[in-house]
Automatic annotation (TrEMBL):
<dbReference type="InterPro" id="IPR002347">
    <property type="entry name" value="SDR_fam"/>
</dbReference>
<keyword id="KW-0560">Oxidoreductase</keyword>
<dbReference type="InterPro" id="IPR036291">
    <property type="entry name" value="NAD(P)-bd_dom_sf"/>
</dbReference>
<dbReference type="Pfam" id="PF00106">
    <property type="entry name" value="adh_short"/>
</dbReference>
<dbReference type="InterPro" id="IPR020904">
    <property type="entry name" value="Sc_DH/Rdtase_CS"/>
</dbReference>
<dbReference type="GO" id="GO:0016491">
    <property type="term" value="F:oxidoreductase activity"/>
</dbReference>
<comment type="similarity">
    <text>Belongs to the short-chain dehydrogenases/reductases (SDR) family.</text>
</comment>
<protein>
    <submittedName>
        <fullName>Decaprenylphospho-beta-D-erythro-pentofuranosid-2-ulose 2-reductase</fullName>
        <ecNumber>1.1.1.333</ecNumber>
    </submittedName>
</protein>
Length: 251
């Protein structure tokens, strides 16, 4: 349960090496979060992330989690919830893919879709069920503005995020009245290891800005968070641009 100051005491991160997720975890630990689970594939990076958060005063555990192995999600995540209630689940795994390569190699495109959408549907439903059973908690889903409208430059990734976004919104509606909140986070271009070397887009942010928006959204019990906030207006306009014109826009 949240403490007397309203801060979550426990956090489960799906995608335990995500820069955005770890920036969020640091902020929550500073606000009294004391128990953190990092779920991801076993790796030195996952161990390093756990050690760094322990150094900030949290009790940190790791759990094996593979977004592509949906059959294992119930057992893997069930172990976490069996250890005690979780106040916040942050779903932060995903891959950008390589649009040019993925168009030539359909199975590579399928991997993007399975990671970003199918894996998220499986893990999201498992966590939602566990949160509902305990009667409280928040599920934070990292979506993307790329899912708002398909672009020629990244329509494979964008379509996977569009599916994830729609799923998360519907899940939030289904959980109304249960004590469980679903918050969809839609960042624009974020400067991370995954985007290193890519041309920077307008209104770019970093992991810390996204983390700050997530923590603020949790406090406000927001349903949708745009990062930066101005993207809400930008995307509202772009959704209505005629397709022939949209194709020519440098977006």
């Amino acid at each position: 349960m949240k403490d007397a100051f309203g801060a979550p005491q426990s956090l489960l991160v799906l995608g335990g090496t995500s820069e955005i997720a770890l920036a969020t975890a640091r902020r929550l630990i500073a606000l009294r979060t004391r128990r953190v689970w990092l779920a991801g594939r076993p790796s030195p990076a996952l161990d390093s992330a756990a050690a760094e958060l322990r150094g900030r005063g949290a009790e940190v555990h790791t759990v094996d989690f593979d977004a592509l192995d949906s059959a294992s999600h119930e057992a893997a995540l069930g172990k976490v919830f069996a250890e005690g209630d979780i106040d916040v689940v942050l779903m932060a795994f995903g891959v950008l893919g390589d649009q040019a390569r993925d168009e030539e190699e359909p199975m590579a495109a399928v991997r993007v879709a399975q990671t970003n959408y199918t894996g998220a549907v499986s893990a999201g439903l498992v966590c939602a069920g566990a949160l509902q059973a305990q009667g409280h908690g928040s599920l934070v889903v990292l979506s993307s503005v790329a899912g708002e409208r398909a672009r020629r430059a990244d329509f494979i990734y964008g379509s996977s995020k569009a599916g994830l976004d729609a799923f998360a919104q519907g899940l939030g509606d289904a959980l109304q009245g249960t004590g469980v909140q679903v918050m969809v986070v839609r960042p624009g271009f974020v400067r991370t290891r995954a985007t290193a070397g890519l041309p920077e887009q307008p209104l770019a942010t970093g992991p810390e800005e996204v983390a700050e928006a997530i923590v603020t959204g949790l406090r406000r019990r927001s349903e949708t968070v745009w990062v930066p906030g101005s993207l809400r207006v930008v995307m509202a306009a772009l959704r209505h641009v005629p397709r022939p014109l949209f194709r020519r826009l440098p977006v």
